[in-house]
Amino acid sequence: MQAIPRSANRSVLFGLLLVVCSSATLWAQSGAAGAFDKIKGLEGEWTGKNSGGMAVTSNFRTTSAGSAVIQMLGEGVDHEMPTVYHLDGDRLMMTHYCAAKNQPRMVLAPGQDSAKTMKFDFLDVTNLSGPDAGHMRQVVFTFIDQDHFRQDWTYRDKGKDSTEVFDFVRKR
Length: 172
Known about the structure:
CATH architecture: Beta Barrel
Oligomer: single chain
Number of helices: 1
Radius of gyration: 21 Å
Largest sheet: 10 strands, antiparallel, barrel
């Protein structure tokens, strides 16, 4: 039996590494794109309740030739808050225009099954009045079925986190 030259081993190893890296890049792109499609699938009107049992509304609308989705939480009330979702290369981002008068940006955490859950983690925030000022830090979507989903919004104020839960039903 003849030994395989070292250069051949390196070539095979390099080829395998290239395939693995390409697959990971394609997964990241298709993962973000798939998650964005899931957000687009929420288009329409939703009603629900927050953790305190108060009625809430949320509307999703695709805009900008399909490149962005606007979620309007509490449309028509004094503290309505839009959130804009969009792709940024191989990642899905969101900017939340908060009633706290700042704009946290979050990014979809990698390695999730976006058919079931999507977690957006804090990236940065604009217009923050100070380092301890209140702002959103995380949003988690949980998809129950085509007509039901839940959002857990985590807010940080003076270093303490609190979470508000919204359970939504598609309005027919």
